[in-house]
Amino acid sequence: MIEAFSLMNSKSRVKLGLNIDHVATVRQARGGEEPHLIQAALDGIKGGAEGITVHLREDRRHIQDQDVFELRKSISVPLNLEMSVNSDIVKVARKLRPAKACLVPERRKELTTEGGLDVIAGKRRISEAIYLLQEKGVMVSLFVDPIPEQIQAAFDIDCDFVELHTGCYANAKRKKRPIELKRLREAALLAHRLGLGVHAGHGLNYENVKAIVKLPFMEELNIGHAIVSRAIFVGMKAAVQKMCRLIETA
Description:
By secondary structure, the chain is an alpha/beta fold. The protein has one domain: Alpha-Beta Barrel (TIM Barrel), CATH 3.20.20. 48% of the residues lie in helices and 16% in strands. An eight-stranded parallel barrel has the order 1-2-3-4-5-6-7-8, surrounded by eight helices. Helix 7 (148-156) runs parallel beside helix 9. It is globular and about 45 Å long. It starts with a helix and ends with a helix.
């Protein structure tokens, strides 16, 4: 009965964090200023996004240093900086002081982030990055696979949130999705029991997002590619409004 009551009270409204990396990808294809990153963020906020997420990669393939500082000054919602634990990136983040930072693994040849951080193997380096960011007032999440040992390790080094990697769920065949959802549900419950906030992201779109919204203690979803893709046809505000409606009705 206690767990049932707890789950009933875990269903507060889930926030949408809009990832605008791929607006910058289109811009960088030809250089210059179009499409305008700040305008994309502002239109997304008008559509209902309650946070803006960008990944400042070491190779600067899309988001640039100037972008993150301009966004920090221009938006009225929290800025969430996805980043590796590279010391140069940590220095930029300490200067920027975003509301939140999400530490993610990063490999130069990957098209996009391919999995969660190995917190167990990288505990010392990740812990140092967490300390340096929190020292500047930045809330820190770790992007992790829904594996109990990784979530425990995240708790052990004092992060504020975990962001559950939903890529395996998003890519799973229909018969295997319940298995992936169970893993995510158990991971969310464990994170909450440990006192960590629960976020999720990667591969989420207009077809698969509702099941993730329903996970216990879910606070925030970070979604980018699907929204930016839809925005090409309907505009950013409308694309975000559609996602927000799906989240709210779930």
